Amino acid sequence: MKDELDNTQVNNIQNFLKEHMVSENEAGKAMNFKSELKQALTEEYMNSLKKQKPKSILGKLNKNLFSPKFLMAGGAGLLVVLIFSAFFIFSLFQSDSSDEGNDDNAQEVITASITYTEGDVEYNPGGAGWQEAEIDMQLEEGDSLRVLDNGRASVELADGSFVRLNNNSEVTMVTLQDEEIKIANGEGEVYARVVESDERTFDISIEDHNVTSVGTAFRTVNFSGIKGVEVFESKVKASPAESENSLLVPQGNKYYFVNGEQVDLERVLVEIINEELADDDFIIWNKKQDEDIPEFADKLGILEDLQAPDLEILTPANNTKTTNETITVRGTTEEDARIFINEAEVDNNGGNFEYEVELDEGDNDILVEAIDSFGNKTTQLIQVTRELPATPTPPPVQPSIGVSATVVGNGIKFNWTITGSVDTSQGFKILKGTQGNTSLNWDNKIDSYYVSSGNARNATWNLSSGNTYSFRVCTYTGSGCGTLSNVITVTEPTAPSGVTSITLSHVTGPKVAWTIDGTAADGVKVVWSKNANPTYPTGANTQAQYITGSSHAILDAFDGAGTYYVRVCEYLSSSGSCGVYSNQITVDL
């Protein structure tokens, strides 16, 4: 019949309805479905009208639809379809009209697409069970993604932000909406590269803790003993679980909600050490990904430069021997690097530098450091030996030692000179006696301090009683004194009240630990040697380790295997020396 809908048009409508049937749990897709259905039904209806004669469409449609012949031929079914379609079109228009009034409050559900997989990567759609993940798969709210063993994965969000997983890591898409994104870091390491937006919040939760992006690049970590965030570009807000307040964590810092390894670094800002990032494969991989994306290429923050600066020492060569009292260090490095030689900053003249270093008699260590604007550091250690110049044989003179002293920090620094032929092969002893004892010797001393190096001409003895004593220096023979110096009188300084005492103990193997009664504001120095009563600054055959923020240290057998004497002392940065010393213990290394 020319005036009726043909079978093809009816089939088109019926097939469209079958293909677009939705279940209750897919109600979120109804808006797109209604729009497509409305368009399709309207086109079919208008096409049918075009086939009718303008003046007789309604009459013929009424006549044909309700004729006995039409109904007997199965037209009743078609009539039901047309009535349903007309009703549905009407309801769609009504729904659209109603929805227009609610658009201001509705949030659009956005997509998350898997863009990279390496190794074993699995996803879990809405808790249905883990299955293999593939590139271009779409993740929805409630879906999880994990990387097993050695692998990686990357997820791109609709706004161009990325979430990347390291090995043995897992995330869950909690909320994916145009104004709110929430992702749970269930385990391992997650790197977030977030597009800055004033219209959308971006949160990553670590159990009950929360990290809110402020348009940035950061890494969240969730392991059994450590949970926190590291910020590489811009900043984030860190909100501990039990706190109503949040802390702003700026670029170049890390903040741990939980830090079982170092509890004293928990809930505080800690500066990120660039050298550690340079050895972090996951961070280097993320840096490369960001560099390949124009949106992020110029927003790398502290990741922009992780390469330590070049440093070349032109003179002197390592293990140089000289009789000069000074030596000039010359070298090259990057133009913007800061140069330090033995902790003194040196001018950088377009990448070139030079600095004159005073030499002590004997072995001298010269430490050169180059630090670029991103905090990357390169160091080189040069050893120079100052030898006494050969001189004509002088006329015989009486062997003697001349000593003087100055009070420094929490002790007394002794300086001495040697005249004549004096045997110093077994080092020196500094003798301490009662005030006014002008005949101070080995037998009437009340205390002594051993200097093992025969080349030493100065030593600092940490004394802090506030009392006045007599002192003199002698060469040590192994059982007493050889050549004696003059006697001097010195008043010991008074120890500051920061540390009352330090108790040192041996934990196990090379590990030692200590407790402090008081506060060591500048940290402590751990000193150990095969010689008893090691001190800081160190003499020959003595090793020192600076510790702050911790109460234990690992020792090494720098002088060969054997028994080492160990002490811990309060470090005083103002004088570069030590204050209160701990008890002495021995450790076999």
The major β-sheet equals: 15 strands, mixed
Number of E strands: 39
Radius of gyration, in angstroms, nearest whole number: 40 Å
- The CATH topology of the largest domain is what? Jelly Rolls
Query: What is the general shape?
Result: elongated
Nearest-integer average pLDDT: 83
Structural class: alpha+beta
- What is the rounded distance between the termini? 105 Å
| Helical stretch tally | 7
Proportion of beta-strand residues: 35-45%
CATH first level of the largest domain:
Mainly Beta
Helix content: 10-25%
Unreliable residue runs: 1-5, 20-32, 49-84, 86-102
CATH-defined architecture of the largest domain: Sandwich
How many structural domains? 5
Give a nutshell description of this structure:
It is built from 7 helices and 39 strands. The protein is elongated and about 125 Å long.
What can you see in these coordinates?
The protein has 589 residues and is of the alpha+beta class. Helix 1 (7-19) runs antiparallel to helix 2 and helix 2 packs across helix 4 (68-100). The protein has seven helices and 39 strands. It is elongated, with a radius of gyration of 40 Å. Helices cover 16% and strands 43% of the residues. The protein has five domains: 7-100, no CATH class; 112-303, Jelly Rolls (Sandwich); 311-386, Immunoglobulin-like (Sandwich), CATH 2.60.40.10; 400-491, Sandwich (Immunoglobulin-like); 499-588, Immunoglobulin-like (Sandwich), CATH 2.60.40.
